[in-house]
Amino acid sequence: MNVFLLKDILQVGLKNEIIKVSNGYAKNFLFPNRLAIEVTSSNEKFYTAKSRKVENRAAAIESTSSILGDQIAKLSLKLKKKMHDNNKLYASINASEIVDLLKLSNVSISKSQVVFDKSIKEKGTFTVTIKLSSKIQPQFTLQVIA
After folding, report:
1. Domains assigned to the chain
2. Fewer CB within 10 Å of terminal CB in the chain, N or C?
């Protein structure tokens, strides 16, 4: 069944996009939650014209992500934490601390976009990856100090 999405749905599609989904998913989830409208032969031209705008929007989102990626790649941030005598942290650094640190540099991301190669549990310099999209994953340097 073809449906026209009224809202962005994670791992399904973007708003104003026409996608093909199973009948059960459409009838049991998308339609009751007012997330989509069925595309029929009578309204197909109207929704097809609306969906063309999505292609332009996807390109705009990608260019915005690449600009944000360049901004993140240039960063080198310092984080002060309490430590034991042997330069070990009391608690490992988590994604919300990285998000708060990036907000100070005018970069707004969610916790789910922060990717650690390994958990940060000690003093030193580390590389943190931010997953903006499947293609754009900039890295910045994080220095943990006492």
Report:
1. 2-69 (3.40.5.10), 75-145 (3.10.430.100)
2. C
For the CA atoms of 128, 132, 135, 140, what is the dihedral angle to 10 degrees? -30
CA distances from 45 to 18, 30, 50 (A): 11, 21, 9
Contact present, 65 and 137 (Cβ < 8 Å): no
Contacts of 36 (CB under 8 A, 6+ apart): 3, 4, 5, 6, 21, 26, 30
Q: Tell which residue, 56, 61, 59, 47, has the closest CA to residue 17.
A: 47
What string of DSSP letters covers 70-132? HHHHT-EEEEE--B-TTSBBSS---HHHHHHHHHTTT----GGGEEESS---BSEEEEEEE-S
Quote the pLDDT of residue 23. 94
**Angular region, 123: left φ>0, alpha ψ -120 to 50, beta rest:** beta
| Pairing status of strand 76-80 against strand 139-145 | parallel
pLDDT of amino acid 54? 64
How far apart (Å, rounded) are the C-alpha atoms in residues 39 and 13? 15
DSSP state of 13: B
